[in-house]
Design brief:
The complex is a heterotrimer. By secondary structure, chain A is α+β, with helices and mostly antiparallel strands. Helix content of chain A is about 20%, strand content about 20%. Chain A has two helices and four strands. In chain C, strand 8 and strand 9 form a beta hairpin. The chains are: A alpha+beta, B mainly alpha, C alpha/beta. Chains A and C meet through loops of A and helix 14 of C.
Chain lengths: ~70, ~200, ~425
Amino acid sequence: MRIALDPVACDGFGYCVEILPEVLSFDEWGFPVVFEGEVPDKLLGAARQAVRFCPRRALALQPAKGR
Amino acid sequence: MSSINLWYATRATGIVALVLLSATVTLGILTAGRARSALPAFARADIHRRISALTVVFLAIHVVTSVVDSYVHIRWSTIVVPFTSSYHSFWLALGTIGVDLFLAVAISSALRQHISARSWRVLHWLAYLSWPVAVAHSLGMGTDTELDWVLGLVALCITSVVVATAWRIWESARATSRLPETLNTPRRSIRARLGAATASQGARS
Amino acid sequence: MTTLEAPPTTLRLVEDAPGRTPTTLAAHRRRHGAPPLSQIATAPGRARLLGEIERSGLTGRGGGGFPSFAKLRLAQSSRRPGVLVVNAMEGEPASMKDRFLVTHSPHLVLDGAEIAAAVVGSARIVLCVPDEAHGLAPVLETALKERSIAGEPTTRFEIRPLPGRYVAGEESALVAGVAGKRPLPSFRPDKSVPLTLARRPAIVHNVETLANLALIARHGSVWFRRLGVSAAPGTRLVTISGSVQRPGVVEVVTGTAIAEILELARPLGPLQAVLVGGYGGSWIPRSDISTPYAPQELHEIGASMGAGVLVALGTSSCGIAETARIACFMATESAGQCGPCLFGLPAIAEDLQTIVHGEGDRRTLDRLLSRCGFIAGRGACRLPDGVVRLVQSALRVFSADLEAHLGGLGCAADVRPRTGRGGKRP
């Protein structure tokens, strides 16, 4: 599974980075970057929490894209 | 139904609701600003939401017990329609108005995902109005204001909100604008201000 | 499929010496013949035409380069009659080809729109034009009136002027604009899900693509493939500007060497570099200008056709300064919806300005490169990606000037930028 981020909806609250720092980090302007393509299984719970906590509903958990 | 217990419940839950409301507002102000604390922002926002939910509960008990208590005649409609009771009509009306405003804030937040960001922000600012109205209602009703500890509690509530507001104003005056330098053509500046306001701390107010 | 004899010239979309006035309906019919309406009147006919389009290898001429038949088939698969959105917005400031095509051959575009609409079953054709004073709306109105007088059905057409911003030509932004919302791009993680307009599927096609479609419908895929390269057949409209005597739009065969294309505009002197694709494209050095103008060959030198733009940079200009100017402009064209673009583009524009003014050092360059990595791919549209690509190509191609600026020395040229006419908007 991977984190998909809607950049239009995102307003840079940053709750997701706080909840899931293993997958998301901040860029210099305070907006989240998804730097990890795959969410480890043990972090799926935290990932779902990050998706739920986003005030703008900008996050989604999706099956990882096959490459 | 009349019982001294209903009256005690009304008074007690009123005080608790005021304390919880003040805590909610204080937390809301601090969270919106860039307060650095050990507690991450999402947790602060979560606690803010949970305390406001608790406030709803105590507020509900407060208004229901006041209506059900037949010792004083307060109608059900008075919960949301002000100036419809003859009992302490002005101060009670303030309580009603406080409930209306608080409900607007709480419901809009519960439905946050479904309304526009701008609508939510405008409605949420009503919180800044509901709190002083609640304080005025509490003091004006005068039920327990002769008790020192009650006055002390109210003073604490007022202090925490005032200090938090003052800090927020100071912090936003001091913060450098996040608007990039190159965006200074007239057409862009207004739109960019709006855009940047939703993108940066403005959205969290 | 009637196959007419191909005109003896390689000019298909425009006439040999396009006059100042739009081609009239009569002249258009004389040159190209009647549109193959009988072929698109039946379902099997439309299926055959779709097959012909697939065999022709036509790709989108709006910058995306997506195979046209695939787009049409995607819209065809939906059961509800959709809307055909004709894209004449041309948000790229260095491009004039779409406006040129509509102004000179409006009926070819309208034919293509009718044919595409028939293939996908669209009940509505919306002609989107920029609302600035380019005169496209009057040209289209006149053309529609001509057709109406000639007894041809025109009720499906409507003309929609929209704000001519860079992002307004992006497909989702365009459809939003037609729907009456703000013409800004939306996040589309899955492009195979069609855009919708009032719950009907909306399909967007560039005017040049439609003009080619109109010709393929008449002459067939074999005729279409006679010109161009096998991977990218057909002709292309190219806007040439910059350090040339005769800036303007030309129609060239895909695969022609870039240098040969530029010769048509008569460069003013030896070239230093060429901007290929537009403000969101990339620079190529003088040593690459004999590259054929075709997708695969351009890709190998780090460029792409983009909006069909070639800007010639003479030896007396500074490539870094020009890039800085373009980056500043593009930063103001941000829709402002996505943080990395809204904040990132002005940041890299500022870094470039710092370097151009001789106040930058290695740290500035490192910061610029790092920022580029944090901006590309993080927006809802490709505007930030284009700027990053432009900047990265500039740092590669103009490395000598870059070193000079970083060292606080003057570069080989005068720093005052001279590309273009200062962008399309004030």
